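Data card: per-record layout.
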Amino acid sequence: MKAVVLERYGPPAVVLTLKEVPVPSVGDDEVLVRVRGTAIAGDDWHLMRGEPYVARLGMGLRGPKNRIPGEDVAGLVEACGRGVTDLRSGDEVFGWCTGAFAELACTAAENLAKKPADLTFEEAATVPTSGFTALQALRDEGGIQPGHRVLIIGASGGVGTLAVQLARSFEAEVTAVCSTRNVELVRDLGAHHVVDYTQEHFAARGPTFDIVVRLAGAYTLSECRRALTPRGTLVLVGGAGGRWLGGVASWPRALLTSPFVRQRLRPLVHTKDPDDLETLRQLLDSGRIRPVLGASYPLNDVLGALRHFEEGHARGKVAITVPGGGQP
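The structure for this 328-residue chain is written out next.
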């Protein structure tokens, strides 16, 4: 089968190769998926670059442990291990795996759910990682409740577009921060108010919000805290940073400060959870959330997809299609 292989850490144009590799073997509780769609997530970018350097403690110090990038996947069940009872060949599924930038990928059966019928494979593939992040930021760390005033910083990206919709589904009052060109997009997704960061700083509105979710931007803890009510919650997901610590550079200060202030400062490391995948599937089926597909590239132009992602202003998610799912 064909797969995008990561030879070493570095610029994608230098370290990625599309080549023939063996088909992965299927364990008793695993499923082989014929990939039809995948998506670029921040974790994929970090894996390829080997940045921030602190992340190499998990990814591999000298080189990547996982040589085929890609976590989010949607496709057709090709084969099932003998312990798998709730899926069968031909089922349309989405979820997560290791090595989705390929024609075939193998993953535990519990990592997959039935694909909503009204979504394309590319659309479904954009949901898992971004959906986990948005859901856990708002529900688990933010403690969102009906009537809460929620600020989403970075509302037009892959996580942000889902976070806006999820906050609305929790019956919160949503304010979205984005650039001028994305104002109408986030309004269409359900934001009650929009802050165009090229024209206004969200902190100028004063201590207004019960929950602030920082997904993007070089905003400091102090700036974000100024927008919070005295007992509000700041959830730190992304942000600017250097090569050593990246977006987590502000996390140590947040953890040290939080015990001494009434505001809650909560860094988020999202987890991939089968129950949350089912929650997202139900939300998609009911129409309460919908993915925003900003761009799509074929597997043989993964470099084009990565260039689009690296521009840093992608609307929604960047998907990668596998035409024919690897059929001869």
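Known properties of this structure: The first strand starts at residue 2 and ends at 6. The CA atoms of residues 295 and 318 lie 5 Å apart.

See the next section for split statistics.
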